[in-house]
Amino acid sequence: METIRVDILNPKAKALLKDLANLDLIRIKKDKSENAFSEVLKKFRSKSDEAPSLEEITKEVEAVRKARYEK
Questions:
Q1: 63 φ, ψ to 5°?
Q2: Does the predicted model carry a pTM greater than 0.70?
Q3: What is the DSSP secondary structure assignment for residue 1, as one 8-state letter?
């Protein structure tokens, strides 16, 4: 079995893919990576009282970069 990712540009192509799936020639699965990331973001945001400021984000990014380059 080979897995490929297809970006559908025309709705007619989606209908063709569904027809192929109905003939059991292909299997269509939703891409979980996008949904999983959104779910993680929602989870973190729901536990937070307020969003971090731009300064706090910048400070954290710089600290991580500094630690990475010190290795």
A1: -65, -40
A2: no
A3: -
